[in-house]
Amino acid sequence: MVLTSAPPTLPMPRLLSTLPTNKSISCCGGTNYGSSQSKPNSAPAINFQAKVFPKENVITSPKQDDDKTVTPAAAARKIPQHLNWESRKLDGVYDTFGGKLGQGGLVFQQNFSIRSYDLGPNGKATIGCLMERLQETSIQHCRSVGLYAGGFGSTPEMSKRGLVWVLCKLQTVVEKYPSWADVIQIDTWTGASGNNGLFRDWIFRDYSTREILIRATGLYMMMHMKTRKFSKVTAEITDELRSALMDSDPLIDIKNAKLGRLDIDARNYFQTSVAKPGWSDLDVNQHVSHAKYIDWVFESIPFSVLETHELSSMTLEYRSECRRDSVVQSLTAVARDGTGDSTHNQGVEFDHLLRLETGSKVLRARTLWKPIM
Amino acid sequence: MVLTSAPPTLPMPRLLSTLPTNKSISCCGGTNYGSSQSKPNSAPAINFQAKVFPKENVITSPKQDDDKTVTPAAAARKIPQHLNWESRKLDGVYDTFGGKLGQGGLVFQQNFSIRSYDLGPNGKATIGCLMERLQETSIQHCRSVGLYAGGFGSTPEMSKRGLVWVLCKLQTVVEKYPSWADVIQIDTWTGASGNNGLFRDWIFRDYSTREILIRATGLYMMMHMKTRKFSKVTAEITDELRSALMDSDPLIDIKNAKLGRLDIDARNYFQTSVAKPGWSDLDVNQHVSHAKYIDWVFESIPFSVLETHELSSMTLEYRSECRRDSVVQSLTAVARDGTGDSTHNQGVEFDHLLRLETGSKVLRARTLWKPIM
């Protein structure tokens, strides 16, 4: 068989990109860019347009070390005040499920129905399905406010300089999983994280009851497409971003959330055999999709946990890109076992590592699982 | 770690079930139940309520043998007349994306937006995503008209007797794949297939242009849940179904569509290593999801085809259930190679087989791939 046709074109811009090299990752912890309270250095400070969430309404994620029992991040949460959906200059209502802008374009809101195919074996929406909605709202928000020049969230100046935003870390805290035919409403907004990073927050609510289902925060850094190195935010880019950023701290203090090291020599762990992504695991950029990363993480968790517990919290730290020829292995070690007996089951926490056959890290993660009542 | 909690409850009814035993499959070809033109035997004929599609508007799927070049089924298609969406007793509009009934409940229509996560590496909606929408509309249709007593499409009498509908065969013909942010509109209806079977048709349209994107037909038989054997349709069940069935032939003559045998001793084929389903591959009934079947089929197709061709037609024949402990292998053989040179590429056709480690067949399939222009 001779196949000489040209490969398919890729009309889509870059989605939630992941980090390209392990070398670059060190700045994600915040050491290179200072905390959100630090003074500006080379880049001028951003004059924030609006203040919606009081700074004290932040989930503080406790610093976590290996095998150390910690209070779940969710325990410290407070509920931000109700969003103001007054119509403003930038606001536009498309349709019930198409999304709309609020707060002068600062906040994007979109509804989704939970369908039969979104459900996992426990009859609830899967975390993979929910993470896909999270991705969709961030893209739609950027598109709605015009931050889409050549890539996800890119300003014109960023495009000119070949810069894109890459997702370094993502933390998700689940209160309750939606069920079939539920309508979920997602609010998302973004803000400055230090001088050279962005955070994005998401709140998932039950559309009918207004109950909060999920909170999530992602941390993004700016990367040069060619050199694959992180870049500082210039004055021009700051000016372009100014009106798009919320003056608030992130819902979850993700910058300081530490992940336990999975030292494969010292600890017992579960592992999968190596696997290559299939065609259906690739996104429009020929990268492995984020949903597949989560699938791989789950594959090294014992079935006995998966069928009796549900994911309560998940922190993902993206370390390097994974493409169609990558050969990946998933490793999981118990970080804290609070299962005890059936009447005092406090759940179980795992450290995870996805690594390439070559040894390079693709993803580090921590997950907390609570018993299904 | 001690895990003693009870397993999660499964609040959802049985979805599109697949056949439980190889022994039972022989009747799916239509030999046991006669053609749709045959006279009723033990079960009384169904008095159809409405006639919408002329019988000549049917895609005739040519009988296919191994390695035989055939005209694609799509070539013979005709477009059914426009549906009548007058409001009737059973009709109800929920919302733009919630679905509505037409033709007195005979036809169900639902819209879906194509999201970023629905796209494959070629920037178009994946066939897996489209098959999920197909499944959703069939479930929603049954639910809307009250055919949901204890299982997908079940009547009260069926529930009493422990009977469910199982999907034996599904054929899909794709004209055009939708892209990001497109809204697709799906119409679906069901009708009698012989005296003891049902067919279900689907038409996918572009919501804006009204262009037909996809046609599909599924063939269902009634199975006893305990004995796992096929059952005849009784007079009581016929009465219950009477008002739900369209008086038409299926869009695709799926009953007579033959699949090529994949004789692994005589032909060259591609194969994957054996694989077990992951947690995220299971549906609410702890069966492997239909999307995963398609993933597995794709895994044994060479990447060189996947990246230069797109799926034009797919026929799936479900042979046995696949559960979480199943160990599955995917095999693919070329049925017809029309790739030629780049100026005369007529595409390529494959026969597929998913089989268990034990040798049992899970799924037989034929796919037709056309070059991407």
UniProtKB/TrEMBL annotation, chains A, B:
**What keyword terms does UniProt attach to this protein?**
Chloroplast, Fatty acid biosynthesis, Fatty acid metabolism, Hydrolase, Lipid biosynthesis, Lipid metabolism, Plastid, Transit peptide
Enumerate the subcellular locations listed in this protein's record, separating them with semicolons.
Plastid, Chloroplast
Query: What EC designation does it have?
Result: 3.1.2.-
* Top EC class, one word: hydrolase
Domain Acyl-ACP thioesterase N-terminal hotdog, which positions? 105-240
GO MF annotations for this entry?
acyl carrier activity; fatty acyl-[ACP] hydrolase activity
Q: Where are the transmembrane segments?
A: none
List the Gene3D superfamilies hit by this protein, alphabetically. Answer: Hotdog Thioesterase
Output the Gene Ontology cellular-component terms. chloroplast
Question: Which superkingdom does the taxonomy of this entry point to?
Answer: Eukaryota
Which Pfam family name is an example for this entry?
Acyl-ACP_TE
Tell whether Ligase is among the UniProt keywords: no
Keyword Lipid biosynthesis: yes or no? yes
Location (main, coarse): plastid
Query: What residues does the Acyl-ACP thioesterase-like C-terminal domain cover?
Result: 275-370
Homology family: Belongs to the acyl-ACP thioesterase family.
Functional summary from the UniProt entry: Plays an essential role in chain termination during de novo fatty acid synthesis.
The name this protein carries in UniProt is Acyl-[acyl-carrier-protein] hydrolase
The species is Prunus armeniaca (Apricot)
